[in-house]
Amino acid sequence: MSYPEQYHQFIELFNKKEYYECHDLLEEIWMEDKSNKFLQGLLQMAVGLYHFSGGNIKGARWMFTNSRKYLTPYSPRYWDLDVDEVLSYLEDCLNALPLEDAIPYTEAKMMPFPSLHLKVDQP
Hints:
α1 (5-15) runs antiparallel to α2. The chain has 6 helices and 2 strands. The chain starts with a helix and ends in a 13-residue tail after the last helix. The protein has one domain (7-110): Hyaluronidase domain-like. The model has no long low-confidence stretch (mean pLDDT 94). By secondary structure, the protein is mainly alpha-helical. This is DUF309 domain-containing protein. InterPro entries: DUF309, TTHA0068_sf. It comes from Brevibacillus ruminantium.
């Protein structure tokens, strides 16, 4: 199956931890079809990681929770992506967040945090 080029670019940028750029890419195609909750879920995961990297824990928690809500109906696989793996990662992210609503940027950068390498498996 053929997917939008931005989807493949998103996967590449996500794996490079370029979360802000991931957001821009997926937002472009999500704006064309706002009913696509799969893309919205991936978009919000990237935004959550971007928030976390800046110390905005409250924003990260909100985005991870929404991402999980949007992606759950696409389990176990969708668009050749292991959605169950992404959902497990989101759970790990939520569990790793500190209790505070915000932490200093420098603390966020030094804090160990779950990582995920996305890959699209062709059938």
